[in-house]
């Protein structure tokens, strides 16, 4: 699903990633650990096509969807409308702005919310959801993008242990049941051990097995 070879990225004139090699298979969960500033976020952003690549190549078997740790939702929009943002690429800006969502997209958004355990919470404003529920909406939006490659950057950093486990179990289930590839950065080794098939450590822009 993802194959990276010799990926080098420079930001602000400084090399941040040094010749990264990494493959993630369909159905696999890979956890990225490592100190702050090591380059984990930069790697996910490069895979998503958000930062320029200085050297190397990134092969994707599917579009990638990013799930951020926080500030990921439009606070004043409903959970459902936040999920529908994931369909913007298919629908186009003006139809979305006019709220002229095709019926099939509305049904798909409801199904995505149900798959993350938020059945019935579609109409609720994002800022009236709990932290765990918000993170589930962010995952539902990634599903709405129909991405088979999920890139989750500290998806549970702001959650209590119980909600953190629930969100990670959700990501793991999406890999297991639906064959999605998941690359997730995590600060807590215990959580990485719980979710990951494989754990990697990033230090100063290089990857090592844990
Ligand atoms: N836009 C930018 N311009 C210049 N340097 C940047 C930019 N963004 C990040 N960096 C630098 O790149 C390095 C890697 O940052 P990155 O955010 O990828 O680390 P990280 O491992 O995700 O850290 P954290 O765990 O704190 O999120 C850091 O030294 C950072 O200062």
Automatic annotation (TrEMBL):
> Does this entry carry the keyword Isomerase?
no
Coiled-coil positions are none
Does the keyword Zinc feature in the UniProt annotation? no
What are the GO MF terms of this UniProt record? ATP binding
InterPro entries according to UniProt: AAA+_ATPase, ABC_transporter-like_ATP-bd, ABC_transporter-like_CS, ABC_transpr_LolD-like, P-loop_NTPase
Instruction: Tell me the PROSITE patterns matching this sequence.
Output: ABC_TRANSPORTER_1, ABC_TRANSPORTER_2
Q: Which keywords describe this protein according to UniProt? A: ATP-binding, Nucleotide-binding
SMART domains in UniProt:
AAA
Q: Where is the signal peptide?
A: none
The ABC transporter domain covers 2-210
Annotated protein name in UniProt: ATP-binding cassette domain-containing protein
In its UniProt entry, the species of origin is given as Paracraurococcus lichenis
């Amino acid at each position: 699903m993802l194959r990276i070879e010799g990926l080098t990225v420079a930001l602000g004139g400084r090399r941040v990633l040094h010749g990264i090699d990494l493959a993630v298979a369909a159905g696999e969960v890979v956890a990225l650990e490592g100190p702050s500033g090591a380059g984990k976020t930069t790697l996910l952003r490069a895979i998503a096509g958000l930062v320029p690549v200085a050297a190397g190549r990134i092969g994707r078997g599917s579009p990638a969807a990013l799930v951020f740790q926080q500030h990921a939702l439009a606070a004043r929009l409903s959970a459902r409308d936040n999920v529908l943002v994931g369909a913007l690429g298919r629908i186009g800006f003006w139809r979305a702005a006019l709220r002229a969502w095709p019926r099939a997209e509305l049904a798909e958004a409801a199904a995505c919310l149900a798959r993350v355990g938020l059945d019935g919470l579609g109409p609720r404003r994002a800022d009236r959801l709990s932290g765990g529920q918000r993170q589930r909406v962010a995952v539902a939006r990634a599903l709405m993008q129909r991405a088979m490659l999920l890139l989750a950057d500290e998806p549970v950093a702001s959650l209590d242990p119980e909600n953190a486990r629930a969100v990670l179990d959700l990501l793991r289930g999406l890999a297991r049941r639906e064959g999605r590839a998941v690359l997730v950065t995590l600060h807590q080794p215990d959580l990485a051990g719980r979710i990951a098939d494989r754990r990697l450590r990033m230090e100063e822009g290089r990857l090592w097995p844990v």
